[in-house]
Description:
It is a single chain. With 136 residues, the chain is an all-alpha fold. Helix 2 (19-27) runs antiparallel to helix 3 (31-44) and helix 4 runs parallel beside helix 6 (83-96). Helices cover 75% and strands 0% of the residues. It contains eight helices and no strands. The longest helix has 14 residues, at 31-44.
Amino acid sequence: MTAAWFLAVWAASAGAGGFEEGMAFKRAEKFKEAEAAFAAVVKKEPRNADALEQLATVQGWLGRHEASIETWRRLLRLAPKNDDYRVGLARVLYWKGRHDEALTELSRVVAGRTRRADVFSLRGDVLAAAGRPEEA
């Protein structure tokens, strides 16, 4: 069996726009293709949280911040207590320069008594970028 045969069989089994196809594109750093694959999954399964999370992530990486913010918010409507989604939203808000909104989202996570170092690190970055390093 050749590599081309294996790839053809894999592509046929994954189906156009499948979640695993999106993950393969993401691992290969083909983010536009990954976005398209995850969007196709979400179109078929609008409440697929795994596909929505991956879609929001790659949208952010592609600099499509407004789309990413909306996707993270969509996830939070499905699971309002999910800290991972809230941190994802805060990270993209930070990248977009919307520091106060990012801090609001991070405050909600911190209020839940998180001990996650990544949350406090991101909070410090946002505070520094907002011109409030003394609070970091």
